[in-house]
Amino acid sequence: MQKVTRPKSLAALFLLPLALSGALWTDACAQPAQQMQPGRGLRGGGDRAAAIKALLGSRKGNAPVPANVVYEDWLNTKSNRKLPVKIYLPTVGQAPYPLVIFSHGLGGSREAAPYLGDYWSHHGFLCIFVQHPGSDTSVVQAGLGGGKEGLMATMKEAANGPNLLDRAFDVHFVIDEVERRIHTDPKLKGQVQLSKIAVAGHSFGAGTALAIAGQNFPVGKFADDRVKAAIYLCPPVIGAGSFVPEQRYGGIHIPGLLMTGTEDNSPIGGTRAEDRRIPYDGMTASHQYLVNFQGADHGVFGGRAYRTPAANDAKFQQMIAEVTTKFLDATLNNDQAAAKWLDNGGAAKYLGNAAVFEHK
C-alpha cells in the first residue's frame, strides 16, 4: 500500500476543493426549489421530521432488509470517525469475492445508488457503500430549516477541503478494516479477494474516487495502490478551461469508467454537462472508458433517492448497471469476454442511440 499521510496544512488543499461549492450536484438537491420547501416532505407531502428521517439514511417505512444486506457502523479509532456502511453480500459465485467500495455524493448516505449495490452483488461482487460524516445527510438536516437559500449555503459550506480529505481517508480506512475483518468478522471472514478492489462514486463521491485513483492535488496525491479500478459517475470538474487536464488527471494509471449525461449540469453552478468528460480526456493510461447518456441528468446516476423517478430512469440505470458490471468483470476478474465487449464494439452496440461510448 502507498503510504498516505495527512498534510500538516490544509491551506493548499483548500485552493481546489473550496471551488466545489460551485461544481457539485448533490444527492439530495436535484430540484431544491420544488423538493425542499420548509415544512414539507421531499416529494411534496408529509412532514419535515419524516423527510429528515429518510435523508439520514434510515430504511424507509417497514420494508424488510434484503437477506444479503448488512447495516453496520465502523469506528476509525485513529480519527474517531464512525462510518455507517451498507454491505451488499454476493448472492452468486464463490468466495473470496472482488470488492467494490462506493462513495455517495454531497448530502447523501450509504443508501445511495441501491440499484448498483443490488446489481453488483447479484453478479458476484461484495459491495460496501460508505457514508461520510460531515458531507452526508446531516448537511441536509442542518440546512432544511433555512429554505432553499439556507440549504444551498449549508451545502456550499460542506463542499470543502477537509471533507474531501476525510472522504479519501475514509476509503483508506475501509480497506484497512476489510483487511482486518476478513480474519475476524464471521460475515466477512474469507469473503474478500484483496487483490481485486475497485472504488466507485457519484458526484462528490466521484471526486473521492478520483482522489483514490491518483488525481493530482496542489499538496500531492491521496491514492491507494490497493485499488485496481475506478468508476466515476458525474465527477465534479473544478476550473474547467483554467488547467491542463493531463497535469491533473494524467497521474491516474488504473483502469477507469466515467459516466455522465448530456443534462448533467450542476444546480449549484459550476460544472457543466460538457465539462464532465475532462477527467477522461486528461487520463493518458490505457483502459479508460467514457459513456455519455443522451438526455440523462445528474440524479439518475445516484439513484434519485429523494425525487420521483424520471421517464427514462429505469432504462438508464439498467444500462449503467450492465456496463459498470462488464467493466468490473474485465478489470477485476480478468474476464476476457467482458474486455472484448468493452473494446471491440459490444458496449457501443448495446448502448445504441442511448449513449455515446468512447474508449482508449
Question: What labels would you give this structure?
Answer:
alpha/beta, 35% helix, disordered N terminus, 360 residues, Rossmann fold, 19% strand, nine-stranded mixed sheet
Describe this protein's structure.
This protein starts with 10 loop residues before the first helix and ends with a strand. It has a single domain (about 10-360), classed as Rossmann fold (3-Layer(aba) Sandwich), CATH 3.40.50.1820. It is globular and about 45 Å long. The longest helix is centred in the middle third of the chain and has 24 residues, at about 160-185. α4 packs across α12, α5 packs antiparallel against α6 and α12 (about 315-330) packs across α13. It is an alpha/beta fold. The chain is about 35% helix and about 20% strand. Mean pLDDT is about 85; it is low at about 1-50 and about 55-60. A nine-stranded mixed beta sheet has the order 1-2-4-3-5-6-7-8-9, sandwiched between helices. The chain has 14 helices and nine strands.
Summarize the entry for a quick read.
By secondary structure, this protein is an alpha/beta fold. The chain is 35% helix and 19% strand.
